[in-house]
Every structure is written in structure tokens, then in C-alpha cells.
Amino acid sequence: MATKARKSTGKSRSRKSAARRPAAKKAAAARPARAEGLFDMSLAGLGRTLEGLNLSSVASTIAEGRRKDLAALVAANKKSYEGLQAVVARQTAMLKNAVSEWQSMAQGAGGAPGFGRLDDAAKQTFSLAVQNIRELAELAAKSQTEAFEIVRRRIMENVEEVNALIRRGR
Question: What is the pLDDT of residues 61-120, one digit of tens each?
């Protein structure tokens, strides 16, 4: 009898595990099918949503925004270049002025200039150099500020455009 019990127990175990296997296989097969179904449904819903949208107006809005971005960058580069030209022109004028001052000082001295006069000339030259450096720095800062302002305005316009699109989409 012990043998029969073992056999019957063995048989019942194999029947139970055999019964579990198809159910587990069915559940595993159903999971991907449900996931694919959800994916298909979400794609179908996305497709219907996209069909309802007027993509030509969205594409033209995006293209117009990028055109404005490029125009802002071109304007900023132009301002920066103009500022650089102004700095170079001013440096050239300062150099010419300094050279002519030194020439006039050398001609006016005639003979041997005194140390007092050289000391005064050095102080004036140093003072003028500091003023010139300050002026050049202000010119450069002004041109960079103007260029940055152009880009900043365009960024703010982009933010406003995105906010308008979001409001329109709601």
C-alpha cells in the first residue's frame, strides 16, 4: 500500500503541476497581448489626436519661430561686430592722439627737457591711458549689452510663444 500511495501521490503531483503549467502559460501569453493591446490603443488614440491637429499651422509656427531666432542672432552678431569696430576705431584715434602729443612735446622741448616736465608728461600720459581704457571698456560693455538684449528679447518671445501654444492646446 505504501507503494500505491507513493504512486498516487506522484501522479497527483504531476497532474497538479501539469494543470498549473497551461494556466501559467496562458497568463504569460495574455500579458504581452494585453500590453500590445494597450500599446495599439495608445497609438490609435495618438493617431486620432494627431489627425485632429492642424499640423501645417504648427509646422509653420515652428518654422517662423526658428526664422525669428536666426534673425535675432544675426542682429546680435551685427551689434557685436559694430561694437568691435567702434572699439578699434576709438583705439586707433587714441593712438594717433598719443603719438601727436608725444611729437609736439618732443618738438616743444627743443633742447634737453627738465625732469619736472617729463614727470608731468608721464602723469598726464598715465591719466589719459586710464581714461582711455575705461572708455574702451564702456564701449565694449555697451555693445555686448545691446547684443545680449537682442538675444534676451528673443528668448522671452520664445517663452511667450510656447505659453500661447500651451494655452491654445488646453
Answer: 778 888 888 888 898 889 889 988 988 888 888 888 888 887 777 676 655 556 667 777
CB of 161 within 8 A of CB of 61?
yes
Residue type, 95: L
Give Cβ neighbours of residue 132 (< 8 Å, ≥ 6 apart).
Answer: 91, 94
Q: Which residues contact 105 (CB under 8 A, 6 or more apart)?
A: 113, 121
Q: Cα(142)–Cα(46) distance, rounded to whole angstroms? A: 50
* pTM listed for this prediction: 0.50
